DNA sequence: GCCTACATATAGACACTCTACATATAGACG
DNA sequence: CGTCTATATGTAGAGTGTCTATATGTAGGC
């Protein structure tokens, strides 16, 4: 998967995996990998800054927890984040439709 | 259309509009706008450097022409460009399938 | 002690799109 | 003649966000 292709879609992916339940960063990376059938291997250097950014702009909130001696920062969607996710979904449908439409090979004129 | 979303897909779009016939930069911009139903307004500062890059790596070739007193640089796909376009198409299908799959809202468990 | 898995984080490299600007011809309009 | 719009190409520099590489630390297997 070409890294640049992810640009501008990372937020949507992160919000989507947090839709059902709050998760911490490491678990989010695993969830993305699982839900993509192994196609998405997003490095920590991408995910952690992105989560902080999403929190800063109000789409996520976070809290620390300690589980099995390890510290986790668990993120959850805010109301704003849920609305944003809906926006990301419709933006994705539009985007996929536009790009797909331009890329679709046209049947050569029969005449 | 969020500019960042185009990242990594520009090459595919440019190769696709050049598949049927050679075009010059300005015409490529118009073709993208037309074929996307007006959704894609790609600025010249994006298209011209991208075309030069694609030529540099061998996917396009170009030649100058003068039409109606105006100079045009007309680009056409090379064999390498055609192969690249096929690669871009399958990469897009994969990408759209993966992102779409992760974004798709899951039905909540019925139990 | 060493290795792997778990867990978070930052600095800087990198690549590409975008904004803004520069240049130039043709033709319409007054 | 001057101005405006459409046509046509191009570059410099800003901006942004992903990636690579690195740092830190715990837990558990061998």
Biggest chain pair contact, residues each? A-B, 37 and 37 residues
What fraction of the residues of chain A are assigned to beta strands by DSSP?
15-25%
**Major beta-sheet overview of chain A:** 3 strands, antiparallel
Our measurement of the CA-to-CA distance between the termini of chain A, rounded to an integer number of angstroms, reads: 39 Å
> What low-confidence regions of chain A span 5 or more consecutive residues with pLDDT below 50?
none
The share of residues in helices of chain A is: 40-55%
Shape of chain A: elongated
How many β-strand stretches of chain A? 3
Mean pLDDT of chain A: 94
What class do helices, strands and sheet pairing of chain A give?
alpha+beta
Run of helices and strands of chain A: HEHHEEH
Give the strand order of the largest sheet of chain A, numbering strands 1, 2, ... along the chain.
1-3-2
The oligomeric state is: homodimer
Number of helices of chain A: 4
Compute the CA-based radius of gyration of chain A.
Answer: 17 Å
